[in-house]
Amino acid sequence: MNQTVEIAPIAESIKAFFSTRSYSNAIVIADNNTKKHCYPLIKESLPKHNLVVVKSGEEHKTLISCELIWGEMTKAELDRHAVVINIGGGVIGDMGGFCASVYKRGIDFIQIPTTLLSQVDASVGGKLGIDFQGFKNHLGVFKLPESVLIDPVFLKSLSERELRSGFAEIIKHCLIADGDKWEQLRTIDFERQNWADLIAHSVKIKKWVVDQDPTEKGLRKILNFGHTLGHAVETHFLSKPAGQKLLHGEAIAVGMIMEGYISRSRKMIDNELLDQMEEFIFATYGKVNIKPDDVEAIIQHTRQDKKNKGKEIRFSLLKGAGECAFDVVVTAAEMRKAIAYYMA
Amino acid sequence: MNQTVEIAPIAESIKAFFSTRSYSNAIVIADNNTKKHCYPLIKESLPKHNLVVVKSGEEHKTLISCELIWGEMTKAELDRHAVVINIGGGVIGDMGGFCASVYKRGIDFIQIPTTLLSQVDASVGGKLGIDFQGFKNHLGVFKLPESVLIDPVFLKSLSERELRSGFAEIIKHCLIADGDKWEQLRTIDFERQNWADLIAHSVKIKKWVVDQDPTEKGLRKILNFGHTLGHAVETHFLSKPAGQKLLHGEAIAVGMIMEGYISRSRKMIDNELLDQMEEFIFATYGKVNIKPDDVEAIIQHTRQDKKNKGKEIRFSLLKGAGECAFDVVVTAAEMRKAIAYYMA
What CA–CA distance (Å, rounded) separates A136 from A228? Predict the structure, then answer.
């Protein structure tokens, strides 16, 4: 493990990467959006390649899209010395990386993350995968890309809502690993944050954690703070009408408050930190409308969480600003209280 | 890399394995045949488990079967601390291992190979995968099982034809790595071979090769002797009527003669060895009826071989009895001659 992450103007970092490698062939995977807004920024810098375009959105992070990608890779007669270039957000990076890692038992791939979320989170750490039967990242592998090429220029292609979604993982990184940065972050409005600085900070924290525990046997689980209930909320809202669906970071923002509440109930953090978290997260994200009817379905979804052992639902919980515990067994009753607290 | 392979009475080796491990849950993957003939021999020795049965045969080594398996794993709420137990031939081992390696980004699995072919080949070395769009093992990963438990008792469940198919890989192991064993092997009729001895010998050779080069960057390619044209013949015959389909080893037997011919054409081996190979292989397998119309389709299939680089078709060719070269570029004209030689 020791993943190369470049934060630099994209044309330069692409040229630098390919100047040191010799590939037999290349394929670019994009979605409808990144084909239009991001691919034109890199097209001229890339070696000869084919382009595969999949439909945008988490609902297309499925085996059906993989079959389309594998079919195009086969048609282009990609051999084991070819490279896959993923340009897009977490869906494209996770799915394109998974397709590359499984095609002919694995070929090289590079990530060009274009959303804030994927720049600060998904593109670093080698977690690849797709959803299955509605369960998030239920199928996948751990494998590192040959390189991650990050350029904040792509953020201009994002809506404010998408930018805000990515910001949730930045908040999480500060809360679990850097109390000083959290103190600084929470005093600045979302609109006035310095993205280049925050991306570099988040990548540094994520790499530090992942390098110590690439396959999530222990420490890496702290990156799941906010994600046990957050994922469950996100999965549950997939079945809601279009107008009510949540972006990943929006669900994680909900999850951080719920899991912050459990951390405080267990006296792992004090009232002050939970109050600060609520103030900042509600000011940034508002409040998601969770109805009493949703509660048991959300709890049910936590049973498929990948951190579980047997029937135990295991959480990563805060121990303070900048500190996080993992493998904490939490009961359904505690979850029920945490969801009720959020709703109240 | 350092794969555990046990050749012992199966009930004992199962008990020994599980006495050292603690799993949250278990699932057994079998096919129609092994459910009937092999599963009863191990059922009582296993920890509590669910059983998933898929349809028998290479034509079911597909994403559709994987979706069935992943669905059952999900329904059984298997977590990351569960284990998958594959009982069957190469199809079950390759596909069940692949399903385990991808489920929640990878859970443990063990192989209980029940055919001669899988005992001497597929179960050792961590090559997992499924077919895609008719291409063999087009999707997959490299990952080692926690253990391989081999017991010759399962060979009693095989037809003579299946036993003969597995024997082809034994012949190959001798030809590429042990000239003395080849000399011994070729003087004994198929019906009088000592399977327990040959299984142990093949496993030893395969492990020796794979331990040196787990992901097939170099030396491991020698295991592909007979497989470039052999796979192409096998794939081509998939589209033939049921009565003409070939088992894997039957196609590899064809491939070894064709690739032996190319080895001799290039003066890498002498006439005597090729003559010996032909005599023994034809005596054991007879001759497959390849028609002039089949030739170009077979050559076309070699373009998807995983050892290729760019447009080059790369072979592993004999350098003598017990010695093999790899990454040898062979032209379509040479392949045409080799197929014609086999047909003549």
Answer: 11
Which residue type sits at B19? Answer: S
Classified by CATH at the fold level, domain A5-156 comes out as Rossmann fold (3.40.50)
Q: Where are the domains of chain A?
A: 5-156, 160-343
Q: Provide the Cα torsion B97, B101, B103, B105; round to 10°.
A: 180
How close, in Å, is residue A186 to chain B by CA atoms? Answer: 34
Say which amino acid occupies A136: K
Nearest CA in chain A to B24: A310
How many other C-beta atoms lie within 10 A of the C-beta of residue B177?
A: 23
A101:B137 CB<8 A: no
Tell me how far apart the alpha carbons of residues A65 and A127 are, in angstroms, rounded to a whole number: 18
CB atoms under 10 Å from CB of A271, counted, come to: 8
Q: Kindly state the greatest CA–CA separation across chain A.
A: 59
B75 touches chain A (CB under 8 A): no
Chain A contact for B220, CB < 8 A?
Answer: no
Rounded distance, CA A293 to CA B29, Å? 38
For residues B185 and B170, the answer to whether their CB atoms sit within 8 Å is yes
Which of these, B320, B335, B25, B326, lies nearest to B180 by C-alpha position? B320
Residues of B in contact with A140 (CB under 8 A): 102, 104-105
Residue A136 or A1, more confident: A136
- What number is the ipTM of this complex? 0.87
Q: In the 8-state DSSP scheme, what is residue A291?
A: -
**Is the domain A160-343 a CATH 1.20.1090.10 member?**
yes
Task: Name the residue in chain A with its Cα closest to that of B23.
Answer: A310
Q: Which residue among A103, A142, A308 places its CB closest to the CB of B106?
A: A142
The reply to whether A70 touches chain B by the CB within 8 Å rule is yes
* Rounded Cα gap, residues B344 and B341, in angstroms: 5
Q: For B216-243, write each residue's pLDDT tens digit.
A: 899 999 999 999 999 999 989 988 998 8
Task: Give B-chain residues touching A67 at CB under 8 angstroms.
Answer: 63
E-strand stretches of A108-157: 108-113, 127-132, 135-142, 147-150
Q: Class of B159-343 per CATH?
A: mainly alpha
pLDDT-derived band at B134 (thresholds 50, 70, 90) equals confident
For B52-82, write each residue's pLDDT tens digit.
Answer: 999 998 889 999 999 999 999 999 999 999 9
**In angstroms, how far is CA A66 from the centroid of its own chain?**
19
From A94's Cα to the closest Cα of chain B, the distance in A is 12
Is B105–A129 a contact, with Cβ atoms under 8 angstroms apart? yes
pLDDT, mean over chain B:
95
Determine how many CB atoms are found less than 10 A away from the CB of residue B105.
22
State the DSSP code for B105.
Answer: T
How far B82 CA sits from the closest chain A CA (Å)? 8
Q: Would you call B106 and A70 a contact, using CB atoms and an 8 Å cutoff?
A: no
